[in-house]
Hints:
Blueprint: H1 12-21, H2 26-39, E1 45-47, H3 50-65, E2 77-81, H4 108-115, E3 119-124, H5 139-142, E4 148-153, H6 157-165, E5 168-171, E6 191-196, H7 199-209, H8 227-232, E7 241-243, H9 254-266, E8 271-273, H10 282-306, H11 312-322, H12 326-347, E9 352-357, H13 364-367, H14 371-376, E10 380-387, E11 393-399, H15 405-425
Parallel strand pairs: 2-3, 2-4, 7-8, 7-9
Antiparallel strand pairs: 1-3, 4-6, 5-6, 5-10, 9-11, 10-11
Amino acid sequence: xxADPRLMELPVPILQERIASGAMRxxxxxxxxxxxxxxxxxxxxxWFDGDYLRRQGAGMDVWRGRGRxxxxxxxxxVTVGDLADTARIPTRLGTAVHDARVPERDAALVxxxxxxxxxIAGKGVVSPFGTGGSDGAATPVAARYAPAAVITSADGGAIxxxxxxxxxxYRPTAGSIPMRGVFAAAPTLATATVLATDLVGxxxxxxxxxxPGDDAAFAxxxxxxxxxxxxxxxxxxxxxxxxxxxxxxxxxxxxIVAAFEELAEALTxxxxxxxxxEIFHEATTQAHRIIAAESAKTLHGTVERHGDDLPAGVAALxxxxxxxxxxxxLTALDWRTVLAAGLDAVLDRCDAVLTAVSPRVGEAGPxxxxxxxxxxxxxxxxxxxxGSEDGRAIGLQLxxxxxxxxxxxxxxxxxxxxxxxxxxxx
Length: 426
């Protein structure tokens, strides 16, 4: 089949089916991905080696030719954010002061990707030490360099970036994906987000990553999460959705409000309106306090050694964190329990909460929109189902309670099918 870049436009389920059936070799898909990146001169990637990617594909075909069992992600190219260690591949943490950093061991999530047969298609661009937001996180998937990407962050910004670029973003329940070998300036809130061209692809990659963390003192035996199967499952009864306007709703563009309200009406009678208590406005304040305090601890030595060579924002964040008292930090951690109870009061009445994701990534209000959900550690998924009249993506986001990831993705698949049917009938 050769290096046909058009292969990269296909959804993940079709790519997996073709490879599994033998209709396409892993080397063909690797060559297509490499050609796509090379045509763009690697724009949007922190590291890329086309020959390395092609060798991985050829190696997967040799593995298959020997009759070995195929992993769930056999031959699928996946990019990884530059905060996750990759053995013998530069991992610079988004900063020039670590240009020579080449880890000897893969991060746990990279090990799991490789163990599932995925091809490491490049390293995604990140802000310095992951402290400056997630702009660019969705570029590898939006540009079709790879069908999926794994990015780690503390602020939930990768979800907003996915919504803005029209791709699926799924941030699992905090703690579902091991973070050993991933640099986290604020480890309490940091977790991985999977971005993909489609919902099934996001579920497939995330399912391969789920595992107890290396720091777990004890892990109860549990079956696989069944995320991919959930996207194909029919709910036993049609889901009930709580439609919740985001906290920045008063400042939202009129076309975003109109599209969201139209969808809410289409969901009748399976939806009801709800609002978050006013107290939820505390979430971003408390989350920023945790991020600043933990970044001050994590990066204090780095600022002392390389302060003049670091972006001003890193030093400013550390300085802000040093001003957070132990009492305020511990109080901020306690706020998660308080707000989780408020969210549970809504989720007790429904399968998932539906809210909007602003496409205006980087502006003061909307940039913090997903920080609330990251702060609470609940699973969330954004679907690229709506758009404005001028062609901008309008992200829909579903949120559920901790541990209900499979149910969340099943509900997301149901909602996606409903919106598609609505579109075909209009």
